[in-house]
Predict the 3D structure of the following.
Amino acid sequence: MKQLTITRLTETGRIAAVQVPTILNEAGIAFQPIDELNWSEYPYKPKVEFRIAHTGHSLLLHYRVTEQSVRAVAESDNGRVWEDACCEFFIQPNLQEPVYYNFECNCAGTLLLNCGKVGDRHPAPKEVLASIDRWSSLGREPFEERIGECSWELALVIPASALFNDTITDFGGRTLHGNFYKCGDLLQVPHFLSWNPIQLPKPCFHCPEFFGELIFKI
């Protein structure tokens, strides 16, 4: 199990997603690679990295990607974003319960968020989705696949309230489990990368038993 210590920032007031890269730069937050291939039948490895910090009441998440093509066909939240060029963050708030949240966001900032156990998951309400600010260097409009190498960035501000079946008000001092992913099921070259390795016979990200440890500084 990999471990990641998540720095607490002293930012006050509302943070917009477009500010996240600059804020994390100024705080010296390092990028982490998403580079575990896991499945030999999908050998393509785009360059993917992420970094994350928290303010107590919010998570600040930033991805950087370079890949052979990009696609953002999903037109609305809670659509099939995993078929697009997609970055994902799964988190398990209570280590005594197998309940987790999956934040899946395509390269145009369209978001899927569900909560529950494997095989029994429920979508986030519209007001929860609306509370998660997103920024993409490719803009926020859907588009068909664009062939050719493309570098892009994605940032999210995830309030604690987005964990809508829990009552977390401050991430500080908590140790949770989670994983970070990059996929593109319907891209020209499908791929399935993870931060913490997964030991399953077929591609599957819904596997909390293979989450890593996330240590939130006070």
User: Anything to note?
Assistant: The chain has two helices and 13 strands. Helices lie at 20-26, 126-130. The radius of gyration is 16 Å. Residues 92 and 120 are 15 Å apart (CA to CA).
